[in-house]
Amino acid sequence: MKIIKFTSEQLDEAKNRARFIRQMPYSMRAEVLGMFQDMATGGGGGDSYQGDGKPVRESYSSYNDKPDSWFQEVLFEYELLENSPT
Fold first, then answer.
1. Model-level pTM?
2. Do residues 34 and 44 touch, judged by C-beta distance below 8 A?
3. What angle do CA 63, 65, 70 make, to 5 degrees?
4. Are 19 and 10 in contact (CB under 8 A)?
């Protein structure tokens, strides 16, 4: 798989975020997808491990303004990518 680099603006688009996640190593991808599943249902995504006890959604500026529906859309786009023929 060719690695694609994205700008932060491009990663605001759900489809590009899904592509970015798909490029991650399996263990990292699984953790991120779990966080996104939690945030898609109003959760905080779990501990951010920043030492401040804040959840992922609060700790990262790229996520804190995103509605639940954005995370749902990323997960939907990810599933489309996973299920598409290569």
1. 0.91
2. no
3. 70
4. no
Distance CA 9, CA 24 (A): 19
- How far apart (Å, rounded) are the C-alpha atoms in residues 20 and 78? 9
Q: Where are the beta strands (DSSP E) in 4-78?
A: none
List, in order, residues 6 or more apart from 53 with CB less than 8 Å away: 47
1 has a pLDDT exceeding 80: no
Between helix 68-83 and helix 14-22 the angle, nearest 10°, is 50
Q: In this structure, is the dihedral angle defined by the CA atoms of residues 34, 59, 9 and 26, taken in order, positive or negative?
A: negative
pLDDT at 14 (0 to 100): 97
Q: How far apart are CA 80 and CA 86, in angstroms?
A: 11
**Local structure of 55: helix, strand or coil:** strand
